[in-house]
Amino acid sequence: MPDKFQAVVIGGGPGGYVCAIRLAQLGLKTACIESRGSLGGTCLNVGCIPSKSLLNLSEEFHKVKNLSNKGIEVGEVKLNLDKMMKSKEKAVTVLTKGVEFLLKKNKVTYYKGVGSFKSKNEISIIDADNNETLIFSEKVIIATGSVPVALPGIGFDEKIIVSSTGVLKLDKVPKKLMVVGGGYIGLEMGSVWSRLGSEVHVVEFLDHITPGMDKEISDEFMKILKKQGIKFHMQHKVEKITKKNSSAIVLTLDKDGNRKNFDCDVVLVSVGRKPNTEGLNLEKIGLNLDDKNRVQTDKNFKTNLENIYAIGDVITGPMLAHKAEDEGIAVAENIAGQSGHVNYDTIPGVIYTRPEVASIGKTEEQLKESNIKYKVGKFSFMANSRAKAIDDTEGFVKILADEKTDKVLGAHLIGPHAGELIAEIGVAMEFGASSEDIARTCHAHPTFSEAVKEAALSVDKRAIHS
Ligand code: FAD
Ligand code: NAD
After folding, report:
1. Model pLDDT for residues 15-27, shown as the tens digit of each residue
2. Which domain, by its residues, includes 223?
3. Could you tell me which of 450, 454, 435 has the C-alpha nearest to residue 463?
């Protein structure tokens, strides 16, 4: 007899494991199936965590090398890439093991193997030794995430032509790294290898980086990255990548029809990710996908089949770990008869470069397009005393508020600790705050957060320090 559950989650990423824990907290007999042999999904294994670890380590390396500019003399600074990679791997292992502990603590049954549907209530799990286990569940949550998109006809060998997975474990610093795609992954990982000594070139299809971001922030971001030495080739399309011994030639075509060859050691292809639905047998059970091959769901994360739900990267919306987690909690609460809900207007996005870039709510371009009248408040870190004190003054805070009601509609930051500062605005937006509410809140001095307060004051043209 197969084991029976009230709920089974396929996929142990931030969407899946959080959902499984919440289901168990709500009293449902729950299982979670994960195929990669370690929990935490893309995020903990080959995404957020290893990339943030390398971003931090490479930044420390870069900082120490430049300390003498600040009057701190150090000896020769050398890179030990092998040790740096081990430090990154330790962070991953500690966190993935931590998730395994959390599943155990919450009495979630963890199956290691590839899950697929036999019917809408029966799941087959094939383990690493090819043994099959069948389980039965009243409800099933698909949380199988996403995988990197390759360029047509150009596969990943993860040594010379690499995806985000390969670029996180290169065994030497490439002399020249070509990055295809100026989005989140390309700019974060381009920054890492640039700090470690690579000459980094970004080839981007559009005329701006980070599509969808507030244009003023995106322009400032590119200007700063250029100053850091990253080279940009905008409105260029990659036509071909040819491998030559242990290097590659990237052939691009620009908007005026000019072709150009770039020699390099490594090519990172970071042109987006696609939903991971392969091998689940979804056709067999008649589950609908949308036009982008994502699992189609309603606002309660329910698919066209009554007992099957989906969350995270495999459905519509931004491919972000915290979005997947919040959906995991909401769907668990819905299944348990509560009213789970995700507010898609207040999901922050953060790029963990130096400086950090953070964004929440509407951009200026979106407000214009929707004919919403708005006011803008801006404040530069150049005039922030904490930033001045530590000589970290690049960037600014921009707050967008409704022209009539003053309600905060969006905020866009580039600057020191922007990824932390955005949380304050998220809370304010959840409470329906006005820019005046932020402006009248006492902020400690000297902190970077005073730049948020001053930007809020500036919405009403009464910033004090500029
Ligand atoms: P995933 O994390 O992809 O998890 C799905 C899991 O399901 C995987 O472990 C997979 O092995 C498993 N699975 C798939 N099919 C099956 C099957 N048939 N049976 C069993 N298991 C299966 N987001 C952020 O918010 N912040 C960041 O800083 C950030 N950095 C990133 C850096 C990189 C390099 C990358 C690639 C991504 C980054 N992301 C970041 C995005 C983030 O990783 C994803 O949005 C998030 O992991 C999605 O969570 P998920 O649970 O939907 O899917
Ligand atoms: P992305 O969507 O962020 O950026 C892809 C970029 O590639 C875009 O600028 C696009 O215009 C460009 N592009 C597309 N096709 C191209 C082509 N043929 N030639 C040249 N350029 C091309 O995708 P990504 O960087 O691969 O990251 C995938 C997703 O992972 C992100 O959208 C994000 O949701 C998530 N992620 C988040 C973080 C974070 O939160 N800090 C970090 C990494 C990844």
Report:
1. 999 999 999 999 9
2. 161-271
3. 454
Contact 147, 294 (CB under 8 A): no
Burial class (CB in 10 A: 0-12, 13-18, 19+), 59: middle
Is residue 111, in this structure, part of any structural domain at all? yes
Nearest by Cα to 184 from 159, 167, 160:
167
3-class DSSP state for residue 225?
Answer: helix
CA-closest residue to ligand 1 atom 26: 48
Q: Does residue 291 form part of some domain?
A: yes
Stated pTM of the model: 0.98
| Site to substitute for ligand 1 among 10, 17, 43, most atoms within 8 A of C-beta | 43
**Cα of 184 from ligand 2 centre, angstroms:** 5
Q: Are residues 114 and 95 part of one domain?
A: yes
Which numbered ligand comes closest to the C-alpha of 324?
1
Residue 443: active-site member: no
Domain CATH code at residue 418: 3.30.390.30
User: Sign of torsion, CA 222 227 228 232?
Assistant: positive
Q: Could you say which ligand is closest to the alpha carbon of residue 183?
A: 2
pLDDT at 359: 98
* Ligand 2 nearest atom to the CA of residue 349, by list position: 40
- Ligand 2 mean position to 386 CA, how many Å? 33
Same domain, 143 and 280: yes
> Which of 208, 412, 445, 465 is an active site residue?
445
CA of 401 to the centre of ligand 1 (A): 33
Q: How far is CA 147 from CA 69, 198, 276, 347, 357, in A?
A: 42, 26, 6, 22, 24
pLDDT tens figures, 126-138: 999 999 999 999 9
- What distance in Å separates the CA atoms of residue 361 and residue 152, rounded to the nearest whole number? 34
Write the CA distances from 238 to 248, 260, 271, 355, integer angstroms.
Answer: 13, 10, 11, 28
Token pair 């970077």 is found at 448
**Which of the 8 DSSP states describes residue 313?**
G
* In 11-127, beta strands by DSSP E: 30-34, 109-112, 114-117, 122-126
Question: Which residues are CB-contacts of 147 (< 8 A; sequence separation ≥ 6)?
Answer: 273, 274, 276
